[in-house]
């Protein structure tokens, strides 16, 4: 694994974490000093282990290509079938993340598809989670965490139920699109007669090596965005993102070292946004478009001076600016690790792009991360006029599988 991969926080090279409804203005700032960019010829060799205290794909730097997919268990499938499915999925994920062909041929057919032949691991990660309804289907409601209670409704929601929620959820990421698709296809085939796809979404980020040095990426609105994520150097980093090894009351033991993922498909109304002048866009965000620095001056990482007034006596960073409202200090310290992908699903009949953010955020508890920030944004974020929340999901993501375990074993065999 390259040193750059180890040092980067989630989103260091490609995050677009504009909360866009819940993002606190940043998705990833490289931890540590800038380092020379990884040569393109070495990208395929980057390897991330499947086994560990936490699942991969949470604090891993965002990858260039990603897929989010949710499944529902089929009628008649229960706890036994779910356990067998997680065994298959875990075996495939472990093998594919090592850059090897699918060991079970990806289900029916008995052979690997060959999609990723000639490629190395390419930073592939596969992350698994459980939705609220999973516990009903498997008769494990006594093991359902309180944190999986449904998210509250927000005024900017235009949610499509068919593209929301799900019994099971998988996040796939890689720095090679064919490697990512190979994993998607393998895991879909592995589902067999146990589960069917409920919804699936595709995303992307800037490719490693596309800039002269590691830097924060731009989202599809053209805004540099990625300075406000929790950083590994901060003493409360793990506490904000992961469930403690000894979970508190209301959190079952199987969630030790796990996390909760909030997933939102957030469409950007790009035609409306692009009609604004750059100066007006900067007022909406609260940061300069050229370099991501706060309107109060400095560089991208300079703290915002929220009390600074302009010559006309008004706040330099407007009261409804996205960066101001989503700042942890404006939300009782609420913070989350934002690790999204951008998406573009074509042009509508009216000529408008179906594009935006596949927003994924991680936290030890949604009521201490996503929910308070989104409630604040819902009451007066200037960015709300240019985005639309179209799908939503909340998933419990257990801790990493130990050697010889499959993901979720401590739940399904409890």
From TrEMBL:
A Pfam family this chain is assigned to: Dyp_perox_N
Q: Which GO terms describe its molecular function?
A: ferrochelatase activity; heme binding; metal ion binding; peroxidase activity
Q: Where in the cell is it found?
A: Cell envelope
Asked if Transport is a keyword of the record, the answer is no
UniProt region (Disordered), positions on chain: 203-237
Segments forming a coiled coil: none
Would the keyword Signal be found if you checked this record's keyword annotation? yes
Cofactor or coenzyme needed = heme b
Physiological role: Involved in the recovery of exogenous heme iron. Extracts iron from heme while preserving the protoporphyrin ring intact.
Q: Name the chain's protein.
A: Deferrochelatase
